[in-house]
Amino acid sequence: MLAEIVRRVERQKSGIIEAGTERLGEPVVDHLAEYRRHLESKGRSEFHVAETARLITKVTEACRIKLLKELQGSRERIEQHLAARLAEGWSHRTANGDLTAIRSFCRWLVQRRLLSNDPTVGISKLNEDEDRRRERRALTDEEAQLLIVTTRSSERVFRGLTGEDRAVMYTLAQRTGLRRKELCSLSPSSFDLASTPPIVRVRAGDSKHRKADVLPLAADVAELLRNYLAGRPNTKPIWPRSWWRRSAEMLYADLEAAGIKPEADDGTVVDFHGQRVTFITELARVGNSPIAVQKLARHSDFNLTLRTYTRLQIDDLVDAVERLPTLGGTGGGKGQSLTAPEPIPNMPDDARLRDLVAVWPTLPEHLKNAIAMLTGSLEGKAPPQERRVLPDDVPEDHDRGKS
After folding, report:
1. CB under 8 Å to 260, separation ≥6 — which residues?
2. Residue 197: is the preceding peptide bond cis (ω within 30°)?
3. Distance from the first to the final alpha carbon of the chain
4. Which of 20-24, 242-246, 272-276 is the least confident region?
5. Which terminal CB of the chain, N or C, has fewer other CB atoms within 10 Å?
6. Burial level of 105, CB count in 10 A (0-12/13-18/19+)?
7. With the C-alpha atoms ordered 60, 108, 299, 172, is the resulting torsion angle positive or negative?
8. What is the mean pLDDT of residues 135-160?
């Protein structure tokens, strides 16, 4: 046994076999438990850790993978599993979720030298845009206001939240883009309503991208929160976490009470996360710059902001087109006309003077003064004499050539 150990160590040192080869016979489930602890140590949320472990378990069981050596050579099994998922009618997004989970686990095993290669290398994600099963839409201004007003007057209590509680929550979601779990984490201490501008803070541990966020609040939203939060415990959550897993049920009831269809005739839906879509779409609708919209949406990729969260309607696009300047003879636009300007009265006959009169409003002040001095001298008013700098006037330490 000692000779076998020495021989294996020598082969590892010489590079003939990998250092973790002798551990390929270990069960996958043992390392999955350690991987869960690794995710927890990185500050991942409880839900993220549990969901990742669930997907990894689902993939390994479907592919009949029990040992590390079976996982190392499982590329074909994983591809067959993903193909079977699609054949069963699952969406591209669901298949990508399985691939992302098992890939993260394999990469961690490779980093720990428990696998010599990642079996998921070369397996590409599917295009989710080609197979969207749930298309969210933004609320119109009228719908957003109707939802708030109707909910505020509601006598229904959902999981401890009154109509006013839900109305303030919807208002904050539509005017900050905060997600459900971020709203759950807020307490009165999260707000600084006396600052200029008023702000709300989201801790790094509660933000989706694991970075602390500071978001500005509009004056009307700050005033609403100032009255709503008065007298509440400073560190106690405003909206306890018991509602967030049933947020769809809560919102659908309030939408129906307001007479708003949760699902439109074209198949687009309004859910709780759709209020974030409403916020980002409204930012784009009122003409904010793309970089401002991306920053407020807290996206690292502007394409995500534009492709997924901006839902401009045809009326908004028509207004954008109408703001273009009208071309010669077409008329009808809201923008400035590109036709020739009307003639200036008393325009001089000389072509050069006409050009000067036409550009006079755009000239810098020093050029206007120079022209005024020149025209004054032509009328018999001698312009002030400028002092000429002679060579003797130049300081001795100055570069005479440059002067």
Report:
1. 139, 143, 146, 147, 270
2. yes
3. 91
4. 20-24
5. N
6. buried
7. positive
8. 87
Query: 191 phi and psi, to 5 degrees?
Result: -110, 145
Structure letter (DSSP) for residue 361:
G
Helix (H, G, I), strand (E, B) or coil at 88: coil
Least Cα distance to 68 among 34, 21, 122, 107 occurs for 21
Residues 269, 275, 276, 278, CA torsion sign: positive
Instruction: Please report, as a single letter, which amino acid is at residue 73.
Output: G
Q: Are strands 213-216 and 191-192 parallel, antiparallel or unpaired?
A: unpaired
**Per-residue pLDDT, 36:** 92
From the list 120, 119, 122, 112, the residue with the least C-alpha distance to 26 is 112
Q: Which of 114-118, 224-228, 336-340 has the lowest mean pLDDT?
A: 336-340
What's the CA dihedral at 299, 204, 232, 235 to 10 degrees?
180
Q: Which residues contact 317 (CB under 8 A, 6 or more apart)?
A: none
Rounded distance, CA 88 to CA 65, Å?
21
Check if the beta carbon of residue 262 is closer than 8 Å to that of residue 274. no
Phi, psi of 210 (to 5 degrees): 60, 35
Residues, the chain: 403
SS3 265: coil
Tens of pLDDT, residue by residue over 167-178, are: 999 999 888 888
Please provide the DSSP assignment of 300-318 as one string.
Answer: S-HHHIIIII----HHHHH
Token couple for 192: 């600084």
Q: For 249-282, how does the pLDDT look when each residue is reduced to its tens digit (9 = 90+)? A: 898 899 899 898 877 776 778 878 878 888 888 8
pTM of the model: 0.57
In angstroms, the CA 193 to CA 188 distance is 10
Angle of the 92-111 helix axis to the 46-62 helix axis, nearest 10 = 90
Return d(Cα 384, Cα 373) in angstroms, integer: 8
Per-position b or e across 213-243, b if 16+ CB within 10 A of its CB: bebebeeebbebbeebbeeeeeeeebbeeeb
200 touches 222 (CB < 8 A): no
